[in-house]
Amino acid sequence: MTTMTRRNEEQAFLLHSTPYRETSLIVDLFTREHGRVAAVAKGAKRPRSQLRAVLLQFQPLTVSFSGRGELRTLVGAEWEGGSIAPRGDALLCAFYLNELLVRLLPREDGHPQLYDGYRDALAALGAGASLDATLRRFEWLLLRETGYAPDLARDARRHLIDAGRNYRWEPAGGFVAAEPQAAASANLVTGATLRDLASGQFDSTSTRSQAKYLTRMILAHHLEGQALHTRQILIDLHKL
Question: What's the average model confidence in pLDDT over 193-220?
């Protein structure tokens, strides 16, 4: 546990907030240098509170907080501006990113590159970029930063991934090469897709499709089968 007593003017985003007592909030902040930080925003529910107008999700903030325990005190927050909020399906996708961070990222574990990737993903969603490509890129960045991403360069036998072969992912060992005569199926991904993922390329439709299937399997494994609420909402809306 860090021994910090006060941090001033840190870049941050609000991931989630819950009511606390009559006039305050407990906020879950994603900061660039210290990762997820929980803090009490005293008086933030009051109509004239400066914090009330600033603590908005998907907007870049500059925050200051103090304290030594797991629950810190939010001293101040300012809106940095210059951000276009996602709308429609893109807004639901942004909530999905927040849920992934809350569920998978430990508290006070700094990941500056993940923070930058989250900021870029929000900007892409706000600008109307491809939802599939944006989500897959962020999911794989999150898996790499948290240590959950499998080796994309070598299979379970430490052989280099072959772009022309099909592979099956196994939680205990990584990617296992399918027999050459095995037909392509829903539980296999191509070596070409794995190479695209390793290089961060999501231009191919097949890569995005197979990456979606693969990330769902890996995330479900590390979430121990617990469903992501925002993903289910997206599925239900698309059915309607």
Answer: 92
Per the listing, tokens 């004239």 go with 48
- For 156, the token pair is 């379970």
Q: Sheet containing 174-177: which strands, arranged edge to edge?
A: 174-177, 166-170, 189-190
CATH fold group of domain 6-79 = OB fold (Dihydrolipoamide Acetyltransferase, E2P) (2.40.50)
Q: Which residues contact 45 (CB under 8 A, 6 or more apart)?
A: 19, 22, 23, 24, 25, 52
Residues spanned by CATH 1.20.1440.120 within the chain?
89-239
Please give the CATH number for the structural domain made up of 89-239: 1.20.1440.120
Q: Give the residue, 179 or 170, on which the prediction is more confident.
A: 170
Q: Does residue 4 surpass a pLDDT of 80?
A: no
Beta-bridged to residue 12, according to DSSP, are 31, 61
User: Which residues of the chain form CATH 2.40.50.140?
Assistant: 6-79
> Cα-atom radius of gyration of the chain, to the nearest Å?
20
Interstrand relation of 6-20 and 61-66 (parallel, antiparallel or unpaired):
antiparallel
pTM: 0.89
Mean pLDDT, to the nearest integer, of 47-72?
A: 91
Arithmetic mean of pLDDT over the chain = 89
- What is the DSSP secondary-structure string of 165-199? SEEEEETTTEEEEPPTTPPP-TT-EEHHHHHHHHH
Going by C-alpha positions, the residue among 187, 231, 230, 227 that lies closest to residue 210 is: 187
Instruction: State the average pLDDT over residues 4-32.
Output: 89
pLDDT given at position 226: 77
